[in-house]
Design goal:
Radius of gyration: 20 Å
Shape: globular
Number of strands: 8
Distance between the termini: 25 Å
Structural class: alpha/beta
Largest sheet: 8 strands, mixed
Number of helices: 8
């Protein structure tokens, strides 16, 4: 399976062996409605894939990957690494930077990373280079995460790792896959997504922010009870048009219950099926002290 080059919070790569076999065997257009790191859409067998997310930075990174291709992307990445004198352990090793593998490269890269971050945050030219710059910053940031403050500034601190061989391999495989896919990237609020273009031969996968969990994508009022209710109405609309869907979510987490979702499922128990998944959800938000907690992860389907 292909893994996303972005360590996006809530990514479903580890759940793919459980959820992919549940998906329909034949899919014309697959819609990854909240695509995030694209771990699901990139591994689905479909005639066409639509990757959608409200985070325009994600979509423009992916578009840049597809337009420029892996050779040009890698050339730009190495130029940026060289320009900011960031570490490249795959070439020089840890000793070259006075660092140890166990402790990581943060001490060496910190000031260089901050200069890269400052340059990025002051860059108003959103060119292909801008989004390659963003990707490099994500690679060298804490946990390879994406986080912007209320002013739209990237504000994660430096991480422990760099653009290693594993990271490069994930990037190459990802770009190869989107090159061969008939796919497009859209940035549309789910409420504005035109389901009239879909048919019973298509399939919509929905992995929204989870109402009762905390992650970087759900900060600053990122997902509300009204959003949750609107999404469930959206799913009812799909079902009423005979469009197949699967919803990833959690029913319970850290002593909390998603009562909106639970009540909706009870109301629609004759229409929708709930499948429990075996996974211990890990929250990658660096501000959260409790990194891992048991959550009742489910997949809800209408077929």
């Amino acid at each position: 399976m292909i893994q996303s080059p972005l360590n996006y919070t809530g990514g479903k790569f580890k759940l793919l062996p459980q959820i992919l076999p549940i998906f329909p065997k034949e899919i014309n257009t697959f819609v990854d409605l909240f695509c995030g790191g694209c771990n699901v859409g990139i591994n689905v067998d479909a005639n066409r894939v639509i990757y959608n997310d409200i985070d325009r930075n994600l979509l423009y990174i992916y578009q840049t990957f597809k337009i420029l291709g892996k050779d040009v992307i890698k050339e730009l990445i190495y130029k940026i690494i060289d320009k900011y004198n960031l570490s490249l352990v795959s070439k020089y090793g840890y000793n070259y930077y006075g660092c140890e593998s166990g402790k990581g490269l943060g001490d060496y890269n910190r000031e260089k990373f901050l200069r890269l971050r400052e340059d990025f945050n002051h860059n108003t030219n959103e060119s292909h280079y801008y989004y390659v710059l963003l990707y490099v910053m994500i690679v060298y940031a804490f946990n390879n995460q994406i986080r912007f403050n209320a002013k739209g500034e990237f504000n994660l601190p430096v991480g422990k790792r760099d653009f290693n061989k594993k990271m490069e391999e994930k990037l190459e495989n990802f770009i190869d896959r989107i090159d061969e896919q008939d796919c497009k990237f859209t940035c549309i609020d789910f409420r504005e997504f035109n389901i009239e273009t879909l048919t019973e031969n298509d399939f919509v996968y929905i992995d929204p922010p989870y109402l009762i969990t905390c992650a970087t994508y759900n900060e600053q009022g990122g997902w509300s009870k009204d959003d949750e209710k609107d999404l469930l109405n959206f799913l009812d609309s799909l079902h009423n048009r005979n469009i197949r869907f699967a919803l990833s979510n959690v029913l319970r987490s850290k002593g909390k219950e998603n009562n909106i979702l639970i009540e909706w499922l009870e109301k629609n128990k004759d229409r929708y099926k709930t499948i429990n998944l075996n996974y211990r959800y890990s929250n990658s938000n660096y501000q959260t002290k409790d990194k891992t907690s048991a959550s009742e992860e489910v997949l809800i389907i209408n077929y």
